[in-house]
Amino acid sequence: MRIACPHCGPRGLEEFLYHGDATVRRPRDGGAAPTKEWTDYVYFRDNANGPHDELWYHSAGCHAWLVVRRDLATHEILHVKSARDAA
Fold it and tell me: Which position among 1, 3, 67, 68 has the lowest Cβ density within 10 Å, counted as fewest Cβ atoms?
C-alpha cells in the first residue's frame, strides 16, 4: 500500500504509523468523573466497512499528521489530506 503524502508525494506504508479513527472526538467534560461519553470514547468503536477516515503519522518523512480516507473492504486509498487542513 502506498500513501500519497501531500508534502512528500507517494511513499510506502513502512514510512507511516497508523494512529486510529479520525472521526472519534474527545468528550469536552475533562474526564474528572466517569461518564457515558468517556466510556464510549475509550472503549467503543464502530466496526466500519467501506470508506473511513483514519489518522496516520509520516514518521520516516516530513513528520506530518495526515487524514487518510481508505476503503476498509479493499484497502484502497481514496484521499489524503493534512490533518491541519481537516481540523
Answer: 1
Long-range contacts of range 73-78, CB-CB < 8 Å, 24 or more positions apart? Answer: 73/49, 75/1, 77/1, 77/2, 77/3, 77/4, 78/51
pLDDT digits (tens, 9 = 90+) for 27-57: 988 778 888 999 998 899 888 899 999 999 9
Inter-residue contact 52 to 69 (CB < 8 Å): yes
CATH T-level fold of 2-86: Folate-binding fold (3.30.2270)
C-alpha cell read off for 60: 520516516
* pTM (two decimals): 0.85
Backbone angles phi, psi at 73, to 5 degrees: -80, -35
